Amino acid sequence: MEERTVKSKLIHRGKILTLRVDEVILPNGKRATREIVEHPGAVAAVPLLVDGKVILVRQFRKPVEEVIYEIPAGRLEPKEDPRRCMERELEEEIGYRARKLKKLLSYYPSPGFSAEIIHIFLATDLDKREQKLEKDEFLEPVTLEFEEALRMIEDGRIKDSKTIIGLLLTENLSSG
Amino acid sequence: MEERTVKSKLIHRGKILTLRVDEVILPNGKRATREIVEHPGAVAAVPLLVDGKVILVRQFRKPVEEVIYEIPAGRLEPKEDPRRCMERELEEEIGYRARKLKKLLSYYPSPGFSAEIIHIFLATDLDKREQKLEKDEFLEPVTLEFEEALRMIEDGRIKDSKTIIGLLLTENLSSG
After folding, report:
1. Which residues of A touch B26 (CB under 8 A)?
2. DSSP structure string for B42-64
């Protein structure tokens, strides 16, 4: 089933993503083009407080022109360790230090055109610190009952893949 | 929190995606750039047989250079009805006609840089037809016990967002 690359053309090297177009040989010997977004990968975590509440962040996302709910997350720097990155993002975005980060899984949000991989953690044993957003970063933490967050998936108020996957896996862990 | 667009530059108009770079005004009045992948959206469905088995497809995905497991899915044509598109894709990819398509949810795989939205269905009351792949499409249907598919999420063999979300939601429906 593999597709061998015979030509690769860089279209755009940007701040957060790179677009290239590959020419490939299909299993039947024919040629086809593949548009591919390169991405450094990302981390995300479900921050679960001792009282069972979960902390999400509200953030405007230009591609969808909407303020949406997400779990705290961040883009990896090249070669950065996912756990270190996640610890930093939790402090920056919601002002908590996680003493425990349990890896839930790694997944491809959109493998048809994007190489992005997202590593999801469950963050517990949270110690309150100060939120310290990067300059030009605008987001608002929201603390919710876990059951309410699950209802928000059902009724469509939560639409982000990492948030849906992180919350559903956390529910499965606690119920089984 | 909104970001107002002051300039938009088309970088690439491709077969399956378009890349543009927007210049925006942040809530603090400063300017920033946003790299945005435009995408027509997609549909996906969890095909559940009467014996409780589920049908996945194995497919090579160039961006991640891997043969991965996915639920049947397809890209929407402009203005196409998601249900019609899903019915067609189920016949093409796995050779089944679904008499029942229940909408599970719509989600954003990667709203930080991509406008793509994926609509997920549960497909039941399946009638066997002939698989009729489009030319130059290479994928292999695999029928699995539902519990085995869930284990494949846990142990990392299933990594695709629509597949993880579709299977976990289907599990939730059947368990309560």
Report:
1. 136, 138
2. EEEEEEB-TTSEEEEEEEEEGGG
- In angstroms, the separation between the Cα of residue B63 and the nearest Cα of chain A is 5
Q: Look up the ipTM and state it.
A: 0.97
Residue B114 domain boundaries: 42-175
Question: Could you tell me if A47 and A29 lie in one domain?
Answer: no
Same-domain check for residues A34 and A47: no
pLDDT at residue A11 above 80?
Answer: yes
- pTM higher than 0.80 for the full model? yes
- Per the structure, the count of domains in chain A is 2
Residue of A46, A113, A164 to mutate for B, most B C-beta atoms under 10 A: A113
With b meaning 16 or more CB within 10 Å and e meaning fewer, what string describes A65-90? eeebbbbbbbbbeeebebeebbbebb
Q: pLDDT digits over B124-153, tens only?
A: 999 999 999 988 899 999 999 999 999 999
Same domain for A55 and A102? yes
A109 contact residues in B (CB cutoff 8 A): 109-110, 161
Q: Say yes or no: B28 and B115 in one domain.
A: no
Check whether residue B24 and residue B88 sit in a common domain: no
Cβ-nearest to B159 among A1, A14, A106:
A106
- Average pLDDT score over residue span A47-66: 98
